[in-house]
Amino acid sequence: MAGYKEKLSEVKKTLGEVLNKAPELGKFAEYIHAAEAPGALETKLKELISLGIAVAVRCEPCIMWHTEAAINAGATEEEILDVIKVAVCMGGGPALMYGLKAYEVALEFLSKK
Known about the structure:
mainly alpha, single chain
């Protein structure tokens, strides 16, 4: 079974293929890049917010994407656990199960940093 890094690599590869075939979707990708850039909030905080939303809405590819980005921006295991706790408050039991997924992803990404 592939690890989360490999799964995320596949998501990124597929996304690249889709953006090449449907360049109009690139406008949305440009917006995401601009929204996640440092501004009033630092990138790490924005990625942690995105991770919390990903857990609450139960999006596994989003969890992988934003966990990696948050860690690359300097997030710690403790910060990720705090985000998971808040996401579970907002998303209930299903978010708790995806919070476990986010924790597994974070542990893998932190160990292979």
